[in-house]
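Methods — Computational structure assignment.
A single polypeptide chain was analysed. Its primary sequence is given first, followed by the predicted tertiary structure written as structure tokens.
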Amino acid sequence: LPEEFRGKESPNQIKLLVQKQEFTQAIRTADSLLHKKQSAELLYVRANLYKITQRWSEAHQDYTKSLAMKESFEVYLRRGIVNFEMTRYAEAKNDFNSALHISPQSAQAVFMRAGANYNLKQFTEACDDWSLAARMGHSQADSLLETKCVGYIPQYVRNAQQSRQKHIDNI
């Protein structure tokens, strides 16, 4: 199963179609179920199907509708990824921030926010996030920190330097 469907609640008929990689039929089934009754969960499922098939605009619309009905870490994270894929980096960053507001310990959301920051040319923030994601255990953060953040001074070191400078200034 694609990551979006592992361990998640989805209608059985959609799950079976996803297992067979019959995504178009799974979307039709989701459409039919949504026609009967709209729910945040089913919109999320259909958005995931659109995401898997790289139908970014439709995925974004369904994630947005789902969030209007019910805020969710997973939905913010997935919509952030879709925004990232659509090169809407500022919107992606906002979604990753919203996901982190709900679940501050998510290394994946911090890692993805770093990518959005990097593409927004906010290099210090990107490196801070990759550093944080690495400390949180994200498996890819260290390598990006090494390749993209040459000469980077970690946030805690910058804070210590500023504190030391303030102390010297007060003498």
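Note: Residues 88 and 152 are 26 Å apart (CA to CA).
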